[in-house]
Amino acid sequence: MAQKxxxxxxxxxxxxxxxxQAGFKEVTIPxxxxxxxxxxxxNDQPTVRKIPGLIKYGNISLKVGLTDSMELxxxxxxxxxxxxxxxxxxxxxxxxxxxxESKSRWEFSRAWPTKYDAPDLNATDNNIAIESIDVAHExxxxxx
Length: 144
Hints:
8-stranded antiparallel β-sheet; 2 helices
């Protein structure tokens, strides 16, 4: 059986409501976890049963070089203004290979930005200005 090389983590795209966004410096794919619920009936053995509790998802973290685009900030502003009909979006993070082919895909439902962080500015620094946004969501699945 031939051994395949693992994919590199520096080629990826972000898709928000079907529109592909590129140029992100960093995207953090969140975790999925469940805390166990401890349960015991009076006639059980003297051990506790553990059953799955609620599923919890971490936030998606996005970092991008600051440009003229206001899209991420305006998405956060919808949340701040309470426009609930407009701010929920479906997202996907797509890992691509050297030829630009999609190799892995994580999909997120009902995503909305919980935090926007403007770049820190420093006149003696030589780095790109980076804005970041944290995104909460209500469901994650790896489909590819």
